[in-house]
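Morning. Coffee machine broken again, so started the prediction first thing and wrote up yesterday's gels while waiting. Chain of 324 residues, entered below exactly as on the submission form.
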Amino acid sequence: MAETLTFRDGVLEALFEEMRADPSVILLGEDVGAAGGVFQQTKGLFEEFGARRIIDTPISESGAFGMAIGAAMAGMRPVFEVMFGDFMTLCMDQLVNQAAKVRYMSNGAATVPLVLRTTMGVGAGLGPQHSQGFHAWAAHVPGLKVVVPSDAADAKVLMKAAIRDDDPVLFFEDRLLYAAKAQARDADERLPLGRGRILRPGRDVTLVAIGRMVGVARAAAAELAREGIEAEIIDPRSLVPLDEELLVDSVKRTHRALVMDAAPLRYGVTGEIASVIADHAFDWLDAPVGRLGAVDTPVPISRSLEPFVCPTPERVVAAVRRMM
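Came back before lunch.
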């Protein structure tokens, strides 16, 4: 039987393997060194690679990320960790106006091959300033690539692909998935960015699930199957580039689609994916494309209120029933 690994360890294995194979790969961020990361997501790296390649930065995301951009332009392949995705706001100028633009403004003479790694996700009672998902923000910026893995195996191979990419890649990790296990893949497997996957075949409706929502989609599909409704589940894996062909082909078979994300619905990823489906599979649709996302409110710190924020299997089942 194939080895199983947790999501956290999948990303960590990718970092170990890429750093051993390529001395230009370095890691920068707050508490990534001897402390091993606030979620132990960098454990052991400092002991093997030392302070010259595992670099603890000051609490200044903008300044430290500017260092990472400079290192990337000078030939390194930095992985820059932002402890919580919410703190991306502190380096948005460097990310949006510098990293994303260098290739274009230099006519390809300079590139920024770096990975911005960060967490996302509602849960654990961390409140409105530590629970947001800004993957839609990043996906809106030309020049940035955006990856949102849903399990350990994908997390590992996608991190390796992100490190090897010659453009800036944002790698979003849902921290509530860190302990989730999946079967490891062949160490030689290479997964290019922009290739989604069908997790469950079905004939009646396509469920497009981002990150943690894959688990919600699986639970909903099991309940729908008991009612005779067979749902196909698609995990896009990356938002930029997006596997539009996979999405459209699926909807042409099932004739219905529901897109779900744990980030707020308004102006979010679900709208863009729904638009792709409507633009390219309109004649095959038997119902409007559905969307589910988090409620449009700051995330409450209350553990009794927090569960009401994100889509649940019950909400997915109810939405599909209305489509049918």
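The radius of gyration is 20 Å. Going to sketch it on the whiteboard this afternoon.
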